[in-house]
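testing teh design pipeline on a random one, pls ignore if ur not involved
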């Protein structure tokens, strides 16, 4: 999906927000109707019935009639498709859309192709009930039949065309790489490279802490609180942009360089869950310490390093060339002799085999075990080509 940065005028900004509000209301009304439907009322109303109800509502309410019927009907189509995916078992249950968090709408049809290129840097897109809105030409405009307009929490508008890029072809070198994901080192390759996902700088983290303290002292629903929340959202958006850029560059580099990419078969959603409370049997109503503060710090580290996003983009760019490996004991097993022991891991970064004396980086040792594919004890039965050539880190971690 190709995304571009939009630059609407203040009047267009207000009109776009109104379109988002109407699309959100239509979606939530359809979700409420679908959630409260019971079997005794007959079949659940589909898109055709809900579109008829939307026409009657537009005839009765002027604020709804003032909006774009194309945007509102498309929200109903998107909801019907989400319900279909839910019953097919491929997607989660449709949820409520919240103001300030899920701001966006989609345009499908002939209007989606109304894009005019102004010059080398700028272009315009026609948005119903808004007019021609300028956006920055950061890449080639794809040939798409629909686009989606979104607004993030930092107040930035984006235009995304629904066009799936072709997968990256394999180089044909026969090389296999193992990727070990961590918190201190975002991704360690079996080739010896250590890649670190960039985040907020020390100065930015200091400012974020200062803004969070100011937010705690602000009165609710005040203008100052709104300005502080916007400043915090900009810092978080900056971190997300850097992480996304790093993931895109690393995933593209790995897909172009290796024929087979092996990663740990981790379930990030389960790893980042909150720890369950431990009731105290001796004191009714009290709870025992469950390490929630340490677990929350670990969860932030996992999410900040983009564990799930990296594997997701690898599978999309190199379909069929990404394998999940059982991560059990990969960090405790020597990649040279296969000896497995907990004392082999001297520290977070140092690995020293108690049997053969092999010493090296712990994350790289785990990545070599992951590149072996199956159980570490069967490495000799599964020959793989693991390149030990070290390439400059700035090519992928910039």
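output:
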């Amino acid at each position: 999906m190709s995304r571009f940065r939009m630059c609407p005028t203040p009047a267009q900004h207000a009109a776009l927000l109104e379109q988002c509000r109407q699309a959100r209301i239509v979606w939530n009304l359809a979700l409420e109707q679908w959630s409260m439907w019971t079997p005794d009322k007959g079949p659940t109303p589909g898109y055709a019935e809900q579109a008829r109800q939307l026409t009657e509502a537009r005839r009765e309410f002027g604020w709804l009639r003032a909006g774009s019927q194309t945007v509102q009907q498309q929200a109903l189509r998107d909801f019907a498709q989400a319900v279909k995916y839910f019953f097919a078992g491929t997607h989660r249950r449709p949820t409520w859309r919240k103001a300030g968090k899920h701001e966006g709408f989609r345009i499908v049809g002939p209007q989606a192709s109304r894009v005019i290129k102004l010059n080398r840097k700028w272009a315009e897109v026609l948005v119903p009930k808004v007019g021609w809105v300028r956006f920055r030409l950061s890449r080639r405009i794809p040939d798409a039949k629909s686009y989606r307009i979104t607004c993030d929490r930092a107040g930035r508008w984006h235009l995304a065309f629904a066009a799936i890029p072709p997968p990256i072809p394999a180089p044909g070198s026969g090389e296999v790489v193992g990727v070990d994901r961590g918190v201190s080192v975002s991704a360690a390759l079996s080739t010896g490279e250590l890649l670190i996902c960039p985040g907020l700088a020390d100065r930015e983290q200091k400012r974020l802490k200062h803004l969070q303290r100011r937010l705690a002292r602000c009165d609710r629903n005040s203008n100052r609180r709104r300005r502080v929340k916007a400043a915090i959202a900009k810092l978080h958006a900056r971190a997300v942009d850097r992480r996304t850029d790093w993931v895109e560059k690393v995933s593209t580099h790995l897909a172009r360089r290796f024929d087979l990419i092996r990663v740990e078969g981790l379930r990030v959603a389960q790893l980042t869950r909150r720890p369950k409370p431990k009731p105290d049997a001796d004191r009714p109503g009290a709870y025992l310490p469950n390490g929630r503060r340490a677990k929350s710090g670990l969860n932030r580290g996992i999410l900040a390093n983009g564990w799930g996003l990296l594997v997701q983009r690898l599978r999309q760019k190199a379909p069929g060339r990404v394998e999940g490996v059982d991560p059990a004991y990969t960090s405790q097993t020597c990649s040279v002799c296969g000896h497995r022991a907990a004392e082999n891991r001297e520290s977070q970064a140092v690995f020293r085999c108690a049997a053969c004396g092999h010493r090296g980086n712990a994350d790289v040792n785990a990545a070599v075990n992951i590149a072996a594919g199956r159980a570490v004890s069967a490495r000799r039965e599964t020959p793989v080509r693991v390149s030990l050539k070290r390439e400059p880190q700035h090519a992928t971690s910039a």
